[in-house]
Amino acid sequence: MISKSEVFPIGKFYKPHGISGEISFGFTNDTFDRTESPYWVLEMDGILVPFFVESYRFRSEETALVRLEGVESEAQAKELFNKVVYYPFKYAEEDDEDPTEDDNWNTFVGFKVYDVMAGYLGEVEEVDDSTLNVLFKIINEGREILMPVAEEFITDINTQKREMHVHLPEGLIEL
Known about the structure:
The protein is mainly beta. Helix content is 7%, strand content 45%. The strands form two sheets. The protein has a six-stranded antiparallel β-barrel. The protein has a six-stranded mixed β-sheet with strand order 10-9-8-7-12-11, with no helix packed on it. It starts with 6 loop residues before the first strand and ends in a 9-residue tail after the last strand.
């Protein structure tokens, strides 16, 4: 069984392309093109499931068209719409195993965040990089916290446990 500590997000599947099961893949990390993994992982009904990649071809700098083994129709491809795609750490390059070496903050989606003073803040649900100031959107019991992504706030990262420890300035959490 695959656990979340063994994988990291690399993008998301979008709409089917054509009627033969090919699907549009918006990627935030090109590890899949630089390394070789026999499978990618999707969360299906709360369980991480491997999907074997038959082929992919680039459509743009951020999009590829992917053909997965066993996905042979538009209806099957539609079932994967909006699913986050994960990549196994064990097939990634060493540089990819330490997300702080990369400017790709999307690697931290799913990490639990702990503040030195406030304790558990919640889980990183998404990264807002639409402006110059990148933000982690952290959710805890329906409460949303927007945390500026700044290396000086991060005190420790444990990729195996998928945890990030931070020391945020006083008052930032209440904003």
